[in-house]
Specification:
alpha/beta; DNA polymerase, domain 1; OB fold (Dihydrolipoamide Acetyltransferase, E2P); Rossmann fold; 4 domains; seven-stranded parallel sheet; 25 helices; about 20% strand; globular
Length: about 700
């Protein structure tokens, strides 16, 4: 027992049972203090409150068994030795086997020991558990009441080297828990009562040593709430700070909007009109707009952004449109330029490959205010890019840019209005977690003339029929796309590569058709050349990698063939599918399945059943999880150890409401009753305060 009083900030080096080697190992996995250890939550729990007789065991079940060791010794296998013990509960016998640390276990377990063991039951010459969790019991200990809900921890290699396993961590946490004074709660009794939360002291102890499932669930609920609450507080503070940031009110609706509206050969949907009003109302205020425009592929986000830009130009400010790829930037240029000319607005593009002379002229035009709308990639955030007066920033496929990148662009103006756009339908839980500091506009209605895309899953043996169908489409004057997941073969993958398959399809399958190829490693000029030829219908079939996921809009393309479809996320498949069906002809998406697992079958069946991106995104999130949803890692943003945005919907919404209400009542967290909340928040999110007015 340590001599000094233990607090949350106590270094583990001063704790009994933690020598220098273990202290170093714990530090290597981010555990340095008592607080760090208490917040090192179990990966799962075993319910030992229910003991199963050996005679009632079944294969594959998770069970807790209590019995006496009748025999125990090291045995020699084909490759290595292992330790095996025979356990009896008086009515049956089973074996316990350890392959790892056999010599260590031999010293720990002896004949005559009474054990409580837990693990997954297997059957091999009788019932057995391999590498069971175990506890030694005293002879007079009541078997029924001896079991608790036992925590199992992730044990990284660093801890294994010091023989620190789940048992060892439990002992260490127990030592600390027994000596630690009551932990003060950052939430008041009133707050806890209102939100039905356990005291933090009880939650942190019971997550490790729960006497029942009910107590454990209360602890889990409280700790999940905390993680969601403090992230939502960060978003609430960001939003509050932005709402206090003054900027130029763009409240004049000039002739530009009417000129563009009158030139349209289609009618705006009610959803588009609603969203335009939301954006117009935001921009008319002397506070910076921070709005996310979400709409499915083909829902008509581009014209909304064009009209927003027209409002800005009418108010004598400039507009910057940032896209993640040069292809998408050029696509936007084509869309904006057409409308800009109608409304007498000047428009230019700035990308990494812009020639030096042209770039210099563009920079001068921006600085002097002669260019109204600039479209570009990361090139827009270079230091030498200066504006006369930047009033509106539009960021497309905004999830591909970090917060700081968006901030670099907005910093080039005096708190310009921000409109972020995404064609990736975002599930509600994800939207309020990643984008909770933004106001949300959703285009949830497709244009009336939009014909649903027919989606079919096929296997390799049906490809001949698919190729014949593609020939028929080309013969009718239409075009096709074929997408492959890789550019070239690698030793790690057997996927058909775009480069190789281009040669195969052009020479053997479609020898009489013009087959093009585009991929991310091509030079810009070569990409542009291919895309121009495809746009002019000089290329009948375009072979591509996922570079076409966004940015290609060819109304004449009616067939999208996606190879190895099972290797893509559902959201990505939906994005790719949206590259066809943009004209008046019926379009098709054909998914080639080469993986025959039940999971792949289930996933692709979802694509066949719906064209609704929001339904697809929900399923994709459940399958892949938030880390892979966008195809990128949001590094360091989610400080979740126990919370899960996929399954925690009710907790997340409750935590969000509570966080936003608190920030509304106390925008800078200065009130004395919020001091502990402020301290906990600052400790958690000190590195994420770039847009928060708090220190």
């Amino acid at each position: 027992m340590p001599e000094k009083a233990i607090t949350l900030s106590t270094s583990l080096q001063s704790i009994k049972g933690v020598g220098p080697a273990r202290a170093d190992a714990l530090s290597a996995v981010g555990i340095n203090t008592v607080s760090d250890l208490l917040h090192y939550y179990p990966r799962k729990h075993l319910d030992r409150t229910t003991v199963t007789p050996i005679s009632k065991l079944k294969k594959e079940m998770e069970a807790t068994v209590i019995g006496k060791v009748e025999a125990a010794d090291l045995r020699r296998g084909k490759r290595r030795q292992y330790f095996q013990a025979i356990l009896s509960d008086g009515k049956g016998m089973m074996s316990l086997t350890w392959f790892n640390g056999a010599s260590y276990i031999k010293k720990a377990i002896k004949v005559g020991d009474r054990l409580a063991v837990s693990g997954k039951v297997e059957f091999f010459n009788g019932f057995q558990i391999v590498h069971p969790e175990y506890d030694k019991l005293k002879e007079d200990e009541d078997p029924v009441n001896s079991g608790l809900v036992i925590p199992l921890y992730s044990i990284p290699a660093e801890l294994k080297k010091t023989r620190l396993d789940s048992r060892g961590l439990r002992r260490l946490i127990k030592t600390i828990s027994d000596s630690l004074k009551e932990i003060p709660d950052h939430f008041s009794p009133e707050f806890r009562k209102e939100n039905r939360l356990a005291h933090i002291n009880n939650a942190l102890r019971n997550i490790h040593f729960a006497e029942s499932e009910d107590v454990l669930n209360e602890a889990i609920h409280r700790l999940k709430f905390d993680e969601h609450f403090f992230l939502q507080m960060l978003l609430a503070l960001r939003k509050s700070s932005l709402q206090q940031t003054g900027t130029k009110a763009l409240n004049k609706i000039g002739p530009q909007v009417k000129l563009i509206s009158d030139s349209l050969d289609f009618e705006l949907t009610n959803a588009q009109k609603k969203v335009i009003k939301e954006i117009k109302d935001d921009m008319a205020r002397p506070l910076s707009m921070n709005r996310l425009l979400q709409g499915d592929v083909g829902s008509g986000k581009t014209i909304v952004s064009v009209l927003a830009a027209a409002i800005a130009v009418a108010n004598n400010v400039q507009v910057a449109v940032m896209a993640p790829t040069e292809i998408l930037a050029h696509q936007h240029l084509a869309s904006f330029k057409k409308h800009a000319e109608t409304a007498h607005m000047t428009c230019a593009i700035l990308v990494g490959g812009t020639p030096a002379k042209e770039r210099r002229a563009i920079l001068d035009g921006l600085a002097e205010g002669r260019i109204d709308i600039i479209i570009g990639t990361h090139a827009l955030i270079q230091k030498d890019v200066k504006f006369k007066e930047l009033g509106l920033v539009i960021v497309d496929e905004q999830h591909r840019f970090g917060v700081l990148q968006r901030g670099d662009l907005t910093s080039k103006g005096l708190n310009p209005h921000l409109l972020a756009m995404t064609a990736t339908p975002i599930p509600r839980t994800l939207a309020i977690t990643y984008h909770g500091d933004m106001d949300l506009s959703i285009i949830d209605e497709m244009p009336k003339n939009r014909i649903p895309i027919v989606t079919k899953v096929v296997e390799e043996q049906r490809l001949k029929k698919v190729y014949n169908f593609m020939k028929d489409e080309v013969a009718a004057g239409r075009q096709c796309m074929v997408v492959y997941p890789l550019v070239e073969e690698t030793e790690k993958s057997d996927l058909a590569a775009a480069v190789e398959m281009h040669a195969n399809l052009s020479e053997k399958i479609f020898p009489n058709l013009k087959v093009g190829l585009i991929h991310g490693r091509m030079k810009k000029d070569d990409k542009d050349s291919v895309m121009d030829a495809y746009a002019r219908n000089e290329i009948h079939i375009l072979i591509s990698t996922t570079v076409i996921e966004v940015g290609i809009d060819i109304p004449n393309a009616t067939v999208m063939l996606i190879e190895h479809a099972d290797r893509f996320g559902l959201t990505q498949l939906h994005q790719l599918r949206g590259r066809v069906g943009r004209g008046s002809e019926k379009s098709y998406c054909i998914l080639v399945r080469r993986n025959f697992t039940n999971n792949s079958k289930k996933r692709l069946r979802i694509m066949e059943s719906t064209n609704d991106g929001f339904v697809i995104s929900d399923e994709d999130l459940k399958i892949r999880g938030p880390g892979e949803f966008f195809g990128i890692r949001q590094s360091g943003f989610l400080k979740y150890k126990i919370a899960d945005m996929v399954t925690d919907g009710p907790i997340l919404r409750k935590a969000r409401q509570a966080a936003f209400e608190l920030v509304k009542a106390d925008p800078n967290l200065n009130q004395p009753k919020h001091e502990l909340i402020r301290m906990r928040f600052m400790a958690e999110y000190q590195d994420k305060l770039e847009r928060v007015n708090i220190s």
